[in-house]
Design a protein that fits this description.
By secondary structure, this protein is an alpha+beta fold. The chain is 32% helix and 21% strand. The chain has a 5-stranded antiparallel β-sheet. Helix 16 packs antiparallel against helix 17.
Length: 502
Amino acid sequence: MTLSALQFIRRGQTVTLHAVPPERTLLEVLREDLGCTGTKEGCAEGDCGACTVVIGEAVASAEGEQLRYSAINSCIRLAHSVHGLALWTVEDLTRDPLIARDPAASIHPAQEAMVSCHGSQCGFCTPGFVMSLFGMYQNRVCQGQAITREQAQHDLSGNLCRCTGYRPILDAAQQMADLPRARVDEAALLAQLHQLAAPALEGADYLAPRTLAELLQARAAHPQAQIVAGGTDVGLWVTKQFREFGQVLDVTRVAELREIDASGEQLVIGAAATLTQAFAALQALWPQLDEFAARFAGLPVRNAGTLGGNVANGSPIGDSMPLLIALGAQVVLASLRGQRRLPLEDFYTGYRKNQLAADEVLTHIEVPKPRAGELLRAYKVSKRTDDDISAVCLAIQLTLRDGQVQAASIGVGGVAATPVRARATEAVLTGAPWSEATLARAADSLRNEFQPLSDMRASGEYRRALLAHLLERYWLESTGSGPVLATLIPLAQAAAVQKAKA
């Protein structure tokens, strides 16, 4: 087995690196191999955003081939995953010959806006913010959009700053559009991307098949290879647990797994669709998921992570699974032997264990489209509003007709070793009148259906109480009382209860 070569476009040139180990991160390559120390290492877990860079990828669209720009965390991104892509770091914005700037401007508008709005103090987080601003600039300003405050907060959600209080950084995000424009020569860059060689499929330590047939063959031939579908969790195994991989099988280049199809009776999401793309498709059918989707990690994590990776990972606090369980989703598993489908809640067999055979991969998630009478809500409770891990995640979908619950589907996270379906509570609700008496019985059932552990995020007692309160919140919203703020049930209450009992 040979160490794979790595090629990407940077500053208008092809960068070629040989013998890059499969577990080496992009941040390590940038800082240690290329000497690009402007990109900072902070948390090494995709949380702070100091390591943010931007990648560009050629994608097909109705208007023809275009570049898609994505801000990502380089600290948990495996280096080989950027093979065949364009890459920008904070040093490149003034040195890339493919970025045409106003002759009077010495720096990029993203940088100029940060300077003029006093968006930097200690400066450690500044490169990451600048790169998120650059991604925002390419995706919004260069598309003729004026950036709103809300858009700025959304696009900067994966970047943390301890000094500024964020106001001047948000000011900078809005001011970029008023400065002389800087434009990437996309035609020239697309031509360069087409010249890069495809990664090897056999005899290499980093496999990146391009078709489903190639993926299934590679999985059958290399069942021991570590599957990577975005790396937002596998990257932590490298940075925090110092794991090494003999061989990696990257599924994110498989064309069929990147597709999202909403044309039939089901929404079919390819396992390699990014979380950004997958939630956009879900939000198109269920607009009430907007807030829930925005709270799923920060934008750089959503740009890199995939829905299939989140599902296959099986973390008991993964936020997509309770939602998908409530929606009645199925997973499609495939191998050279054929395909099989499972309800998502039956996919898990234990803590981070599932029913995938050694030669199988998860290829698609199938979600039934909304039907008349269904009411879906998804709730996430965490200590921080943005970019935080859930204490409890609860998704509820009831079919209500003539004041009666015709069907119930409830997905729960943070209360067991796996994401789970609240079957006992569903049974209490199904066929019953949607009334306060039914609510009381269902809340009592949900409170006692699981025995969650206590940890740094919440006590088991609080989690059980929270389930009942969230069901009550669903009742209030479904009966026309309007949305109930999550702050009505803050984690601080749990601490107060525990202190009083001590």
